[in-house]
Every structure is written in structure tokens, then in C-alpha cells.
Amino acid sequence: MAEQNYFEDVQEGQQLPPIKITPDKQQLVKFAAGSGDFNPLHFDENFPMLKPMGLTENIVHGRFKYAQVGRAVSAFAGYKGRVKKFGVSYRGMDLLNKEITVNGVVTGKRQEGGENLVDLDVWTEDPDGKKTTPGNATVALPSKG
Amino acid sequence: MAEEFQITDEMRAQIGKESEPWEYEVTTTSVRMYARGIGSDDPIHYDVDFAKSQGFRSIVAPLGYIGTPVFLPGKNDPTFGFPRREGGPRLNIPFRGLLDGGTETEYFDVICAGDTLVETSHLADLKLRESGRPMLFVTNEAVYKNKETGKVVAKQRLTSIHM
């Protein structure tokens, strides 16, 4: 876990440390077991639905990418922060054995209802730099005071 | 025909109709399995003593994981594991294609191993994209309450795209 972020130190435009992961088949099978989603689209290269989609490789679960974004948001919040909400749209497919990069940036900070809230834009990128899973999050951070 | 599809009053009447409740379990094993599934090496998801030393009840569920639905053969979907419940909204959708459109979770508490959650869901929204190839956006909202305290711990909205 990275060092704890505090509300006073966070600045608009601050970038989150990127997370990179290249999911292989074993990783996606582990995710299937952990999530309970055993759709063969994600681990069987002979699954008949792949061909009509023009694909020869399995597709990474959307929820796997959501969880990767979640890892970046969790790391930003730290153990003393609390994630209030985070959401993504699945705009593009990511494929097995292709690197996924999670990026994020602080878009604003505010105090509301006694909480120190920080808004983030977060997204995944495919190896071509295309944003395949854009989203946003709101995190409550601790104060130094 | 899918090309002539319109959202009917009957379909709109399904909005807000709540499903019967279903239990979701958050266990040390399931949290660790999910954490391994996403490639996390954060000890907060694995080491109970470490998690307690940081002020949590037990290991913490990674973001995006809100427990595993209790699986009863014949009552859960064998591929996806979600419960096939009586009641709740029923939509007669003519499209064969289905895509996952998005996921949004609002948290009201931290979810830890040892929690049992009671989930109910309802159809929250229906939208039709009428320009070009018709696409139906169906948004369901699931509300998760802690079984012991009755407190809402999370709400999750899932959008599926039918086309």
C-alpha cells in the first residue's frame, strides 16, 4: 500500500500512480473463480461466440477492469480513507495477454457533510492508449488536523 | 421485430419492482479468492491480523466485490452464479446481443469478511437509443444491507446493453 494521502496535500490535476497488469489465462480463470462469472468468453479460445466477433483471443471481463480501477482508487484512499462511490462504463474490449494500464487524476476537492471529499477521473487504457473503461470516483480522505 | 422495437408501458411499469431478497456471503476465503483474481497483493485483503491492526473487523473486500450470492442448484444461474428469483421485473426483450454497459457502486460502509449481506434489486431505468441500430439500455440497482444490523452498506447499478 502506498503512503497515506491527506486531504490538505491533494491537488487538482494530481495524477494517481498507474497500475499495469497483463492478464493471462490463469489470471482470468482466477477471476472467474473469485467473481463467480464462468462465462467461457473469458477463458475458452474455442468458445463459438468469439469467431462472429472477429476475435481469436478471449475478452477480459469488464468487471475485472472495474476491479483494476478499484485497486487504483483504493490505493489513493489508503487505509484511513473511504471510497464513497466509483463507477465505469465499458466502452472497449480488452484482450487476453494485452497490457491494461489504470490511470487517474484528481478533478476536484471539497468539504461536504463534514467529510473531505476528493473527486477523481479514472480509466483503463489498452496498449494503443485507447480509454476502454472510463469512469470516476469520489473518495473521503483524512485530514492532518 | 427488433428494428421496430419500442419501450412499452408494460415494460415501464416494471421500473421499481423489487426482487425477493437473496443472501450474499463475504468470507475470508471468498475475499482472498477475489483478491487473487484481480492480482492484488495488498495484505488488507489477505491477512486478518494485519487488517485488524489497521482498525478493520477482518480482511477487507476489494472494491467491486460485494460478496458471493448463496448458490443453490436449480435456483442460481450455473454460469454466472446470480440468483434466478421469483418476482422482480420481467422484460420481454427481442434483441439477442448483450453487452455489459457499466458498473457503479456507492458505498456506505466498509465490507469485511464475516459480513452476510441481504440484497434486493429492482429495475431502475430503461432507455432506448433510437438513432442507428436500436439499443436498449437496462439499468438494475441492487441494494445490499448488512444482515445483522440492517444497515445499507452499498448500492450497485449495473447497465446492460441489448441490441
Descriptive notes:
The complex is a heterodimer of chains A (145) and B (163). Chain A contains two helices and five strands. By secondary structure, chain A is an alpha+beta fold. Chain A has one domain (11-140): Thiol Ester Dehydrase, Chain A (Roll). A five-stranded antiparallel sheet of chain A has the order 1-3-4-5-2. In chain A, β3 (100-112) and β4 (115-125) form a beta hairpin. Chain A is elongated, with a radius of gyration of 17 Å. In chain A, 38% of the residues are buried. Chain B has one domain: Hotdog Thioesterase (Thiol Ester Dehydrase, Chain A, Roll). Chain B is 12% helix and 33% strand. A six-stranded antiparallel sheet of chain B has the order 2-1-4-5-6-3, with no helix packed on it. The longest helix of chain B has 10 residues, at 28-37. The N and C termini of chain B lie close together (12 Å). The model of chain B has no long low-confidence stretch (mean pLDDT 92).
